[in-house]
Design goal:
- It is a single chain.
- The protein is an alpha/beta fold and 337 residues long.
- The protein has 2 domains: 154 residues, Quinone Oxidoreductase, Chain A, domain 1, CATH 3.90.180; 150 residues, NAD(P)-binding Rossmann-like Domain (Rossmann fold, 3-Layer(aba) Sandwich), CATH 3.40.50.720.
- The chain contains 8 helices and 15 strands.
- α6 links the parallel β12 and β13.
- The protein is globular, with a radius of gyration of 20 Å.
- The structure holds NADPH dihydro-nicotinamide-adenine-dinucleotide phosphate.
- The site of NADPH dihydro-nicotinamide-adenine-dinucleotide phosphate has 30 residues, from α1 and β15.
Length: 337
């Protein structure tokens, strides 16, 4: 069983050498009387939140990766053997698996059966999985959008951002995204239908860039990056704007977070700045599917994936999230069937 092993707790930016690919043995049969499920992993999801589990935590509510054990994350898999009444051999599932060819899922509550297979299976790591639910709940529930509003999204070409932008366009909003390369900016404008986009790495003055894109100010900011960008956005929010605080990837690898200086604008402008966690919305997954599956089937939404082939390339794919190497949702293919 080929596995991606977590070697040591990480400080600063994660490196490929914090992980190693090794082979061990595994039984593909469930023990008599156990309700575990054995799966063959097909697709693995690279998610920024995996960075949190790479640090040592004494908080009992927080589970760090264990040195010398495989990493864990969201993935798509096929059931090989099952002691659980809800799963049988051959079922396709998505949920939490190990970064390895085969996993024994001791707690099958963390996996969900896949019922719709007329769409690419890898989508269950992205648009039809955790990032899709994040974009859907974050935009429709947390941002409370209205037609015609001015919407700004950072890390806009990524797994979550590309969907928030398209949901906002479908709602009739004016949508601008930022990303970290010329190529990504072109994709936002030409493939994903954003009204405008800019490369934040080429802007010395983020405040000026936002004023250029939003001369009348921003109603909704979907924040994926935090830090300096959030600070500049606060200056450009309109009265009673909403900020959905989804993530702050610019801060994840810093020892000391960067200061936000413009926070008093929340008061002056009566801005609703609301943090949210996708796991609170998992009970609404079937409602989410009813909305998003037709959008995929009718080609009203596109979904960009960045595919790495094989477990050997998984560490580089994960580390690449923090340098912006990925264009779209970063997936690792372990096997195609
Ligand atoms: P992405 O697919 O967007 O990949 C990460 C991207 O972040 C990179 O491609 C890069 O794009 C950008 N990035 C990396 N470092 C920086 C930096 N220092 N400053 C600015 N941008 C940076 O990831 P996801 O879509 O999966 O996640 C996006 C955000 O959503 C993250 O903050 C994540 O933690 C959060 N999240 C929150 C959830 C919740 O429940 N609240 C659930 C899921 C995700 P670029 O080239 O544009 O720099």
């Amino acid at each position: 069983n080929k596995q991606v092993i977590f070697k040591q707790f990480v400080e600063g930016f994660p490196k490929e050498s914090d992980m190693a690919v090794k082979t061990s043995s595994i039984s593909l049969k469930v023990e008599e009387g156990s309700n575990a499920v054995v799966v063959k992993n097909l697709y693995l999801s690279c998610d920024p939140r995996m960075r949190f589990r790479m640090k040592h935590s004494k908080d009992p509510g927080f589970v760090s990766f264990q040195p010398s054990s495989p990493l864990e994350g969201f993935g798509v898999a096929k059931v090989v053997d099952s002691g659980h009444p809800e799963f049988k051999k051959g079922d396709l599932v998505w949920g939490t698996v190990g970064w390895e060819e085969y996993s024994v899922i001791k707690n099958p509550e963390s996996i969900f059966k896949i019922h719709h297979t007329d769409v690419p299976l890898s989508y269950y790591t992205g648009i039809l999985g955790m990032p899709g639910l994040t974009a859907w709940a974050g935009f429709y529930e947390v941002c409370a959008p209205k037609k015609g509003e001015y919407v700004y999204i950072s890390a806009a070409s990524g797994a979550v951002g590309q969907l928030v932008g398209q949901f906002a366009k479908l709602m009739g909003c004016y949508v601008v995204g930022s990303a970290g390369s010329k190529e990504k900016v072109e994709i936002l404008k030409n493939k994903l239908g954003f009204d405008d986009a800019f490369n934040y790495k080429e802007e010395h003055d983020l405040d000026a860039a936002l004023k250029r894109c939003f001369p009348e100010g921003i109603d909704i900011y979907f924040d994926n990056v935090g830090g300096r960008m959030l600070d500049a956005v606060l200056l450009n929010m309109r009265v009673q704007g909403r900020i959905a605080v989804c993530g702050m990837i610019s801060q994840y690898n810093l020892g000391q977070p960067e200061g936000v200086c413009n926070l008093m604008n929340i008061v002056y402008k009566r801005i609703h700045m609301i943090g949210f966690i996708v796991f609170d919305y998992f009970p609404q997954y079937s409602k989410f599917l009813e909305v998003v599956l037709p959008l995929i089937r009718e080609e009203k939404i596109v979904y960009l994936e960045d595919i790495a082939e094989g477990l050997e390339n998984a560490p580089a794919a994960l580390v690449g999230l923090f340098t912006g190497r990925n264009i779209g949702k970063q997936v690792v293919v372990v096997a195609r069937e």
